[in-house]
Design brief:
The structure holds 2 protein chains of 2 kinds. Chain A is an all-alpha fold. Helix content of chain A is 64%, strand content 3%. Chain A has 20 helices and 4 strands. A two-stranded antiparallel sheet of chain A has the order 1-2. In chain A, strands 3-4 form a two-stranded antiparallel sheet. In chain A, a hairpin with a 6-residue loop joins strand 3 and strand 4 (564-569). The two termini of chain A are 20 Å apart. Chain B is α+β, with helices and mostly antiparallel strands. In chain B, 37% of the residues lie in helices and 18% in strands. Chain B has 8 helices and 12 strands. Chain B has helices at 30-65, 75-106, 219-230, 239-250, 253-256, 290-298, 300-303, 316-328; strands spanning 115-122, 125-131, 138-142, 144-148, 153-159, 164-166, 175-177, 183-187, 193-198, 211-217, 280-281, 286-287. Chain B has a 5-stranded mixed sheet with strand order 3-2-1-5-8, with no helix packed on it. A 3-stranded mixed sheet of chain B has the order 4-10-9. In chain B, helix 1 (30-65) packs antiparallel against helix 2 and helix 4 crosses helix 8 (316-328). The radius of gyration of chain B is 26 Å and the shape is elongated. Classes of the chains: A mainly alpha, B alpha+beta. Chains A and B meet through helix 4, helix 10, helix 11, helix 12 and helix 13 of A and helix 1 and helix 2 of B.
């Protein structure tokens, strides 16, 4: 079949209808992925505004801009928003967009679940922000320790809203994790055996397993909390045989892996950028993959280091000191491999690569302070102080946001078909890098000087006023950098220079198709023969034929060798995921007010699911 | 209206020669001193490691920037270098882990402490309970812990409501007060002084204003202080104060506060038996003076918004008399 004819037929089969109906019913992973990324960045901006408000209040001792009630809501919103509505979703959103392209398939596995997960995420985010807007935002911290978040000390609906927002994001994150695992294991291009999977895809695979294993812990925790609050159980009430520390164990059994759920995708992004901008494959592919897996395993063995001052048995604490320190080894290995790649390569200093350099400078500091807080005696002095605030911002902003911003510059042509501005990219990198360090480095000192976290004010006698003012002013530089980034992204998406298919000369499969890719991703499914399928451009990419063009089909391949196994039909657009998400959201929000919502609210959900899974008949039988 | 705040220099026998009254880098107690050595050691070592990595990064970037004239680095050499770097990382991490274990051992609880004091945290103040050696004659104070210098003091940490964390950085690392799970903490001051501490675990609205003072004094002074605190409150001699006492007992104040030797036996708020002798009120918020007492009683919600003390309507005379009475409770 001629290329033009093939494109026309595939386009007719795979494209999303225009207009509102198309927007609400689409299951195209690229449309949903873009939507997810944009939504996550909106939450980043909102969370950033909250941090500026906090810095306004803390710039001076005993300031009266924001009272304790609003302040507690603001820092709770900032943490919950950044962790649950920005950091985890944005990483997963990048995966939704990129993973099917990078493994060379037409569609993500479970496309309708993918649409459903986005609507659930949006509903959870709206619930949280609307509650905050009407002064009912949660105010018990993003960690929501009991009994402060329990029925006795958190009256009203604020803590319930927090717990239900967690449920929304759990549903959404778990759904994506399952889609990614199945897409990577069963839909890779023929020939992409396990040792030819791009590092970003590996990182998202490990991340998805972390999500699947960590989320149940927070589900148990948030469900028990809701039950304590609404039904009158006593899971966390010591007076009735419950246990306060149970919450902390469950929360951190999820909460620590959460850090790696955010960080590991960044490892994948950095690897992609380093390989492209040093013009050679990342050194030590096998070591990098092993480090990803080792980090994933160790991530579950160190939650107790968040509880070193809770009065746990000493021997247990020693074990968790050792395991917390040990996780620095795979992280160090990854850093050394990147350095070796840069050493052996020919670096090109474009904006994405600048963010990677910034990442190494900042993240190494975050990693080293992580080793510090892994030590029990060290931690008894800095736990719950600004030292820890500095530490985890170095890890999360340095370790994840810097790579993410680099990734946006890097993949922007693939996402939008247009290039971002290189000069604005350099400016925003410079402002963000300097603003970040000026803002967060002094917090290490404040923490050692005794300033606790989560305080809305401090007394003028304390020697913290100077540094706090300095930090607040530096925060403006950081904010300006982000503002510039947002301006550049919005402007470039509309009127940036048109991008070719592979503007950076990269070597992974997502660059084998046009920018942005057509609705069917690849007209002819590629066949992969090496780790860097596009690096030898003289040799055109092999391809497979034989998939139907008149209905949606994807190629199923074996897990290890990626040998072609079967054709599988992929579902089309449907409004039912949206209706199912609306019904589920209504039930979850309603259940904040009465447990009966779980009973009556499940009826619309059942109807929506029946519509969703209504059998269509096997097209193979009809033809 | 603002009450006078405690100044760092006005708190009497303040630690001499220190830049902050609440800092892990100004240790004056054995546990905090051990930890400070560990902090300095690890920070210096980590700084060196960071510099080393940065030098490596700079060299790698610079090398790549110059043309490939120097030829390719062999994979074998890269593997060896990366392996060596990982080996050094493992050794460094192991060293820090061992140093951490040794420090943990040196800050543990002693077999027998000279003094045991119970600290019970509440939203948002510290109840401090002293028990005599016979276990019976106890007295309470609030937000202020007196300890003898140079002796091991065991704090029994409890919480009356939510999770709090006891932290006086100059003397020791912090320890949480968890409802239903009492904890212990070793406290020891090597030098006389007033050491400020603060609740470190987020505990609700007024988490920010939950300070605690540890006053370390010579054993003889400490014994004198114990004797004075054990005594019941004196009957006020001054007529204003006497009238203040009558108002105190007639108004809802007595429902929440105890003043030993009077009919006031409330237990929700701090024991006020010797409030006039404490350096601060409202958990370290303001210095104890007649003026600040009056300001606090007149409108506790403006001074410390959201705290659990209600505003009790009083005439200005009543207010003056009650604050005079409080001030007289030395």
């Amino acid at each position: 079949m001629e290329a033009g004819e093939l494109d026309r037929r595939l386009g007719a089969t795979w494209s999303t209808p225009p207009g509102l109906w198309g927007a609400l019913s689409t299951v195209d992973h690229k449309i949903i992925g873009r939507r997810y990324i944009v939504t996550a960045f909106v939450f980043l901006a909102l969370g950033g505004v909250l941090s500026l408000l906090m810095r306004l209040q803390l710039a001076q001792p005993e300031a009266r801009f924001i009272g304790p009630d609003r302040y507690n809501q603001i820092f709770t919103m900032h943490g919950s928003n950044m962790m649950f509505l920005f950091a985890v979703p944005v990483m997963q959103a990048m995966a939704i967009y990129l993973v099917p392209l990078m493994v060379g398939t037409r569609h993500i596995a479970f496309p309708r679940l993918n649409a459903f997960s986005y609507w659930m995420y949006l509903a959870g985010g709206l619930l949280l922000w609307i509650a905050f807007a009407v002064d009912t935002g949660p105010d018990v911290g993003w960690f929501a320790y009991v009994p402060l978040s329990g029925p006795q000390y958190a009256a009203g609906k604020r803590a319930d809203i927090w717990a239900q927002m967690i449920t929304f994001t759990e549903v959404s994150a778990l759904a994506i994790a399952v889609e990614i695992v199945v897409t990577v294991f069963k839909q890779r291009a023929p020939g992409m055996s396990l040792d030819r999977i791009p590092l970003f895809v590996w990182s998202m695979l490990v991340t998805s397993f972390l999500v699947i294993l960590a989320m149940p812990a927070i589900m148990i925790a948030s469900t028990s909390l809701i039950l304590d609050r609404l039904v009158g159980t006593h899971f966390f009430n010591p007076a009735e045989g419950g246990d306060v520390l149970l919450w902390q164990h469950l929360f951190w059994f999820f909460g620590h892996p959460e850090v790696y759920i955010i960080f590991l995708p960044a490892v994948g992004m950095v690897s992609s950028i380093v390989a492209t901008f040093t013009q050679r494959p990342v050194f030590g592919y096998l070591a990098m993959v092993m480090a990803l897996i080792a980090t994933g395993v160790l991530a579950f063995g160190l939650w107790v280091h968040h509880m070193f001052v809770a009065g746990l048995p000493r021997l247990g604490e020693s074990f968790f000191t050792a395991s917390s320190m040990a996780i620095a080894v795979p992280a160090g290995l990854q850093i050394f491999c990147w350095l070796a790649t840069i050493w052996a390569g020919r670096p090109i200093f474009k904006a994405p690569f600048l963010f990677v350099i910034g990442f190494i400078v900042v993240f190494v500091i975050g990693g080293l302070t992580g080793v510090m807080v892994a030590s029990v005696p060290f931690d008894t002095q800095v736990h719950d102080t600004y030292f820890v605030v500095a530490h985890f911002h170095y890890v999360l902003v340095g370790g994840a946001v810097f790579p993410l911003l680099g990734a946006v510059y890097y993949w922007f042509p693939k996402l939008t078909g247009r290039m971002m501005s290189e000069s604005l990219g350099r400016w925003s990198f410079g402002l963000i890098f300097s603003g970040f360090n000026l803002t967060f480095f002094p917090m290490h000192i404040l923490g050692l000087q005794g300033m606790p976290r989560r305080i809305y004010t401090y007394q003028p006698e304390m020697p913290w006023a100077g540094l706090n003012m300095f930090i607040s002013l530096s925060g403006i530089i950081l904010a300006a950098g982000f503002l510039l980034f947002f301006i550049d992204a919005i402007r470039s998406a509309r009127s940036g220079p048109i991008a070719p298919a592979n503007p950076w000369g990269a070597s992974t499969l997502e660059w084998a198709t046009s920018s942005p890719p057509p609705s069917y991703n690849f007209a002819r499914l590629p066949v992969v023969e090496s780790l860097e399928p596009l690096s030898d451009r003289a040799d055109p990419l092999g391809f497979v034929e034989g998939l139907h063009t008149d209905r949606r089909e994807v190629l199923i391949t074996s897990v290890v060798e990626a040998r072609a196994e079967a054709r599988e039909s992929s579902v089309g657009n449907s409004i039912w995921p949206l209706l199912a998400a609306l019904a589920t959201s209504a039930m979850l929000i309603w259940s904040i007010f009465t447990p009966w919502a779980v009973v009556w609210g499940s009826i619309p959900i059942a109807i929506a699911l029946i519509g969703w899974f209504w059998p269509k008949g096997d097209p193979e039988d009809e033809s | 209206m603002r009450a006078p705040r405690i100044g760092v220099l006005s708190t009497g026998i303040l630690v001499s020669g220190c830049s902050g009254s609440q800092s892990a880098l100004n240790p004056y107690g054995a546990p905090a001193i051990h930890v400070e050595h560990l902090i300095v050691g690890i920070v210096v070592l980590s700084g060196a490691i960071w510099l080393l990595v940065m030098v490596m990064l700079a060299l790698a970037l610079r090398r790549g920037r110059r043309a490939e004239a120097e030829g390719q680095t062999s994979e074998g050499r890269l593997t060896m270098t990366v392996s060596a770097a990982v080996a050094v990382t493992v050794a460094t991490i192991a060293g820090m882990t061992i140093a951490s274990f040794y420090t943990t051992r040196s800050v543990g609880l002693p077999q027998s402490a000279a003094v045991t004091i119970t600290v019970r945290a509440q939203q948002w103040w510290w109840q401090v309970i002293y028990t005599g050696s016979d276990g019976t004659s106890t007295f309470q104070t609030a937000n202020e812990i007196h300890i003898p210098v140079g002796q091991d003091v065991r704090l029994q940490l409890e919480s009356a409501d939510v999770v709090h964390s006891f932290w006086v950085p100059s003397l020791a690392g912090k320890q949480d007060l968890v409802p239903g799970r009492p904890n212990d903490l070793l406290l020891r001051a090597e030098k006389r002084g007033v050491y400020r501490g603060q609740c470190a675990e987020f505990c609700g609205l007024q988490h920010s204003h939950m300070a605690v003072m540890v006053i370390a004094e010579a054993p003889s002074d400490y014994a004198r202080w114990i004797t004075s605190q054990r005594a019941n409150a004196m009957m006020p001699a001054d007529p204003d104060a006497a009238s203040g006492q009558a108002t105190f007992l007639a108004k809802p104040c007595a429902a929440c506060h105890t003043i030993r030797g009077t009919l006031a036996t409330g237990t929700t708020g701090p024991d006020l038996t010797h409030i006039g002798s404490r350096q601060t009120i409202a958990a370290g918020l303001v210095e104890t003076t007649r003026g600040s007492l009056a300001a606090w009683i007149a409108d506790p919600q403006t001074l410390k918004p959201g705290n659990n003390m209600p505003m009790v309507p009083l005439t200005s005379i009543e207010l003056q008399n009650i604050s005079a009475y409080m001030d007289s409770l030395k």
